[in-house]
Amino acid sequence: MSNDFQSHADGTEGDEAELRRTIDKAVEGLRAKDLEALEQLYTTDVVSFDVEPPLQHVGIAAKLENWSRVFLFFETVTYEVRDLTFTVGEDVAFGHAFARLSGTLKNGAATSGMWVRVTYGMRKIDDTWLIAHDQVSVPLDIASGRGVVDLEP
Question: How does pLDDT run across 24-45, given as a tens digit for each residue?
Fold first, then answer.
């Protein structure tokens, strides 16, 4: 995993390290297909703007349902995060990165997945950084109205 972590605000090094650990735990949870581990990383009222409909998924149950659907398609999951950058405040932080979900599908076919843009909204609750919002997107080719899924960071 190539996590280039940078801070662009006056947050403490401890907060920066904890934010990175939260995202690393998400990567580990996805690779292990462990919904219980993932549940510990989100606020209960998380709002997710994912690549699949509807426009938003609200609450931890909806977020976990998204991941559950992914796990139905994949026998093995690989998840990568690149160029992760955070801006850190006292109890709120935001970050952005590129991410790719790939692996082996249930039918045995390997897929290299696609790179997406991801934005994280984080909140510090009881001294723990949690994901309160995430947004995943692909660039749009305006002329065709289609997502562009073959780009790489």
Answer: 999 999 999 999 999 999 999 9
d(CA 103, CA 27): 13
pTM assigned to the model: 0.88
The CA-based dihedral angle spanning residues 51, 52, 53, 57, taken in that order and rounded to the nearest 10 degrees: -70
Number of Cα atoms under 13 Å in the Cβ half of residue 91? 5
Return the HEC string of 55-115. Answer: CCEECHHHHHHHHHHHHHHEEEEEEEEEEEEEEECCCEEEEEEEEEEEEEECCCCEEEEEE
Do residues 30 and 99 lie in contact, with contact meaning Cβ atoms separated by under 8 Å? no
Task: Reply yes or no on whether the pLDDT at 12 is more than 80.
Answer: no
**What is the C-alpha to C-alpha distance for residues 131 and 112, in angstroms, rounded to an integer?**
26
As beta bridge partners, residue 7 has 86
Integer Cα distance of 120 and 9 in angstroms: 16
Tell me the C-alpha to C-alpha distance, in Å, between residue 113 and each of 6, 50, 103, 130: 26, 15, 8, 26
